Amino acid sequence: MTCILYAGNFRLNPVDAAGKRVLELSLGMHLLGHEVYLLPMNSANGVPVLFEPGNLYEAAGDCRDRSYRDIVSTGIRATKSRSYSHVILYNPSSALALACLVRSKVSGFKAVLDCTEWYESSHLDSVHAKLEVIARMYVIYRMFRRAILVSPFLDSQLSIANSAVIPPLVRKDRILDGPRERDFATGDTVRFLYAGFPGAKDKVRLLADSLHEIAPRLPFACELHIAGPEHSELANLFPASTDKFTTVAHGRLKSEDLVTLYQQSDFSAVFRDDARYEKAGFPTKAVESWAQGVPVMVLDHSTFARNASAFDAVVTLNSTDISSALAQSLTSLYSSRSAYNKKSRGALQLAREQHVAESYLDDISKVLR
């Protein structure tokens, strides 16, 4: 049995989106017979903990985010404390990545990169942050010989010899068992869900504005549920509620509560600009939505959703006229029970076939060779 250290820019107790990816990939390695030790950036004492498949790492612990300098020194100490066959770094800083590459030459372990993003310069506040991303993406990340990448775009851009493209994953037993059956009726409320914090990446305001505009013309009311921010954090970010359109803020939710909210929703949405960060990434929230049989609304330039279209698991909107496209799609799905339920079944099939660790065991084995 080999020991693997998984460290980097993710959090556990409670787990964030990055931590969810790390846990599902760790499950795949566990199924292959490896021992995986986790070292999140908010580790309480800087000591790696053994991955346990039955632990969802949701319970809040005595955790704090460490500085990047502390993360580097903690990571180096961890490689000295136990004999690891591999050290996997999740979206590491350039300093941590370089330290790991140098340390691998001394200790003999295999360094593996897990990369899921490529920031736009416009999303970064300082010159230092912009230079950091340039150093990572154009120089240091390309020095790795093994990598797990979230998208074909990153795979083609980084050109790492031994790589595997593995999208966000979800635990098999957290996928809804049976198909959802939704029978819309006049006077119903159609519920939309956005999970996350509105910011530079996700254009949830586009959805809110479009729903606010078209709701008076629809035969049903629309609710936009937002999981993450508190209501006070959304002040003035969204149009005012009306009798046909309402915004509901749920604050930060535990995983099981978020699953329940997905199950109560009819659609989720991921709207992003047609830019490099969209091509490079793959939103975890989309996979969580499909796992509950909830179709995802996307714009027509969405890269991550192209494969999902084959499963009929998305609603694709014309990005040049979102309001009209949204009204047309909603009216069509509202008037046809079979059309919506087909999308829901497709979402579940997509999650079961392409977003569970068991589907990528060969890819993980290849990278670890």
Uncertain spans:
none
Structural class, judged by helices and strands? alpha/beta
Helix and strand element order: EHEEHEHEHEHEEHEEHEHHEHEHHH
CATH architecture of the largest domain: 3-Layer(aba) Sandwich
CATH superfamily of the largest domain: Glycogen Phosphorylase B
Q: Helix fraction?
A: 25-40%
Number of helices: 13
Sheet-strand content, in percent, reads: 15-25%
Work out the count of structural domains.
2
Give the overall shape, derived from the CA principal axes: globular
> The biggest beta sheet, please?
7 strands, mixed
Reading off the top of the CATH hierarchy, the class of the largest domain is best stated as Alpha Beta
Structure description:
There is one protein chain. This protein is α/β, with parallel strands linked by helices and about 375 residues long. It has 2 domains: about 5-165, Rossmann fold, CATH 3.40.50; about 175-355, Rossmann fold. About 40% of the residues lie in helices and about 15% in strands. It has helices at about 15-30, 70-80, 95-105, 125-140, 150-160, 205-215, 255-265, 275-280, 285-290, 305-310, 320-335, 335-355, 360-369; strands spanning about 5-10, 35-40, 50, 85-90, 110-115, 145-150, 160-165, 190-195, 220-225, 245-250, 265-270, 295-300, 315. α3 (about 95-105) links the parallel β4 (about 85-90) and β5 (about 110-115). α2 packs parallel to α3, α6 (about 205-215) packs across α11 (about 320-335) and α11 crosses α12. The protein is globular. About 45% of the residues are buried. The mean pLDDT is about 90. It comes from Parasphingorhabdus marina DSM 22363. One of its GO terms (molecular function) is transferase activity. Keywords: Transferase. This is Glycosyltransferase involved in cell wall bisynthesis.
